[in-house]
Each structure stands twice: as structure tokens, then as C-alpha cells.
Amino acid sequence: MSSEVVKQLQEAVQFSPENVPLRLHLAQVLLQDYQYTQAEEQYRKVLELSPDNAAAQLGLARTFYHQQKYSAAIVVLEQLEHHEPDHFDGLLLHCRILVKENSLQAARDIYQHLLQLNPGFRDEALDAQFRMPQQSSLSAEDDLEEEDQEGIFSMEKPDINFSDVGGMEREKQEIDLKIIKPLQFPDLYKAYGKKAGGGILLYGPPGCGKTYLARATAGQIQAEFINVGIHDVLDMWIGNSEKNLHSLFELARQRKPCVLFFDEVDALGANRNSMRNSGASHLINQFLAEMDGIAANNENVLIIGATNAPWSLDPAFRRPGRFDRIIFVAPPDTEGREEILKLQLRNKPLADLDYKALAKATAGYSGADIKAIVDMAVEDKLMEALQKGVPQPVSQKELVKAIKSHKPTTREWFNTARNYALYANDAGLYDDVLKYLDIKK
Ligand SMILES: Nc1ncnc2c1ncn2[C@@H]1O[C@H](COP(=O)(O)OP(=O)(O)OP(=O)(O)O)[C@@H](O)[C@H]1O
Ligand SMILES: [Mg+2]
């Protein structure tokens, strides 16, 4: 991460000191850049603004960890575990610290908890410490590798397609033209000098349907959907990761046609510089090489990445043949919200509803927000039905009440994105964000 980025972020933070995601991002960049005391200061400020912020608690604990302030780290992690007892990364760090401090019994307990949360979890150092010595023969090791993959990627044939995705007409059309049609008519594309292949990067605020749209894309072409969490790749495979990454791409080739989906892809891209001196930088180079390989051979493997933080992604990821098509997934517009409401309410007992009014009342709400509102209203009605002993259709009243009690969750993201779009809009990357915010360049 260049000092230029740090400087820009520091300026942006000065400009909006209460902006939690922005400050959190600055803290994370500082942490990745080994500037632990500065990262610590930023995480502390985030926690002043937002005391239960789990990402900040984890970040603060990491800065302590790197400064070998183990007991301070444990205090923060215990606070984190108090409100999120199953926080995987928090527990993992806690476990590592206990091993360092030689509190092996307590570390073993946490290690068991980690395995319960994710049976496919592997960690070389911790496994060596706690796992029974059982796999000695080669074939046993092969088994282990297969298990690994199951624990980490989820593979499915999605039962949803574009018709289950409300609104997003522009996004669907772009996906159709940029990856589905080239797959269906490769010769035609070739004849016009257009290369098929390459990946699509979806970015935007949380809950606006990136993952959902990627799954629906696979469903649309009856392809397999392989979902890979990059954090998992990084955290679990340190040491053995390159081999596993190769087997992942091999798996995709065997399962074609398929959609290979990388969630939180910025986590991989952002770490490239800070990992330069570690073995893990090979992982990123290999990731890019594997992607190039898929692109060059038109393999019927569609690659889709998703991120909330495109500004953290190393530009190398955006070169031709890689994530060279970038799509902003915006919060749904009025028609989109109406469609999502209808989709989320279908198959439920309903009174006559004024969808237009509900759509109007939910400006700025994400698809996930709308789903949460519908869930709330349905629960409300269910309670009433249980009390009265007669089924009650969901009506406008509960939905309006739920909308009032649920604030839209996309605003914070735009506070951060606005700064990047205004001050770091390389090659017009965030023009769509500016357009959405109605800011003229
Ligand atoms: N356009 C839509 N149509 C129907 N449902 C939607 C739509 N957008 C979001 N949803 C609902 O909201 C849920 C959350 O969306 P999703 O997980 O795809 O968001 P996301 O953009 O990937 O968020 P994050 O950045 O947090 O990963 C979906 O599972 C789906 O139920
Ligand atoms: Mg997602």
C-alpha cells in the first residue's frame, strides 16, 4: 500500500472525522503497512465512535498482537467474544495468542470451538500443536486435501435465475452481454474481434445483491456455482495455499460450465504489497496467472468477483483478461424495490398492498434491507395469528411499521465511496457512483 494512499485516506478522515468505515479502512491500511502504533490509534478512535464494532476490535487486537502486547490483545478479544461468541477470526487470533503464551489448555478449547464452527478448518501450526498424529501415509494426505476443499468452497447448482432478481436491469444486461453471450456465441464474438473470457467485478454497498446476482447468473445458464471466500483462502491455506489455489481452478475446469465466484476479492488484492516479503505474495501472482490461463483458453468458466471496497484492489487485478469489466451494483431504484418487495412477499398470505407506496417509502434501502423488513412484518403477523388463533394476511400496516423501525444500511458505504469517487477516481472508475449520487464531474 503506497504512502500516497495513506496520505489520501488521512486527509479524507480529517475531512470527515466521524466517518466510521473510512477511519476503519485507514486503520486497516496502516495495519497492513506494519504501522502498528498508528493503526492502534485509528482503531481506538473507531471504537470511541462505535464501541461494539467487531472489525475494529479485531483490528485493535491484531495491532496489539504484532506489538507483542498479548494481554492487551486478549482483553479486546474477550470483549469481542462477549457480543460475538462465534467470531471466527477473533477466536483464531485468540487461540494463536494463547499458544504463544503457552496457555495450551485454553488454546485447545478455542481450537475445538473453531473446528466446530468450520469442520474444514486447517492451520498448519495449530494442527501440529493439537491434532492427533494420524495422517502419515500419502493417500491419507490426499483425503485430507479433498476434505479441505469441501470445507472451503461451497458448490451448488443454484435454483434461482435472473427472474428471481428484482430490478437490476442494467446489471443483468451487462452480465448477459459481457459474459453469457460470449460463452454462447464464441465464434460470433471472434468474428468481430472481441475476445470472450475475462472476469467481471461487482462492487457496491452491502446487501444490494452482488452475491445473489452472481448465483442467479449461474442459474441462468444452468451452470455450477463455486463460491470461494478469499479470507478463507488467505487464512486457512497459508503455507499450502498455492497448491490449493491451483486445484480450485482445476476443479472449475472439470465442472464447466461454471461460475467461479470470489467474494471479498479486495482482501486478496489489497494484501499484495504488504505481503511482498512473505511467501504469500506468490499466492496472488498465482491467482493472477490462473485467471489469465482461464481467459486465454475460453474454458467455459465464468469468473465473477465481488467487493465492497474496490479502492483496495490492486490495479493488477483489473488488467485485460482479469477483472476487466467492472459493474457498480447500486441500491435498487423505485421499480426495483417494488419488484424485490413482490419477490420477497410471494407465497405469503397477503392483504391488498400498495406496493408503489412501499417502494417510495424505502428509498436508499438495499435488497437485504427490504428482505429484513418483510421478515419483520411477517413475524409480527405470525405472532398476532398465534395469539388470535386465526391466520392473518400481512397488510400494509405491518410493512409500514417495519420500514419505520429499520434504517437503510447503504448510507455509510456511500460516505466512504463518495470520497474515493471525488478524490481518487482513476480512469473514471467510480463515475457510476458519482452518477448515482447525482454529482457532476
Ligand atoms: N435485486 C434483488 N432481488 C431479490 N432479492 C434481493 C435483491 N438484492 C438483494 N436481495 C436479497 O438480499 C439478500 C442479500 O443480498 P446479497 O447477499 O446478494 O448482497 P451483497 O451485495 O452480496 O452484500 P455483501 O456486500 O454484504 O456481500 C439476498 O440473499 C436476497 O435475499
Ligand atoms: Mg455478498
Automatic annotation (TrEMBL):
Signal peptide: none annotated. This is Tetratricopeptide repeat protein. PROSITE patterns: AAA, TPR. The keyword Amino-acid biosynthesis does not apply. GO terms for molecular function: ATP binding; ATP hydrolysis activity. It comes from Chitinophaga solisilvae. Gene3D superfamilies: 1.10.8.60, P-loop containing nucleotide triphosphate hydrolases, Tetratricopeptide repeat domain. The keyword Plastid does not apply. Keywords: ATP-binding, Coiled coil, Nucleotide-binding. Belongs to the AAA ATPase family. It comes from the Bacteria.
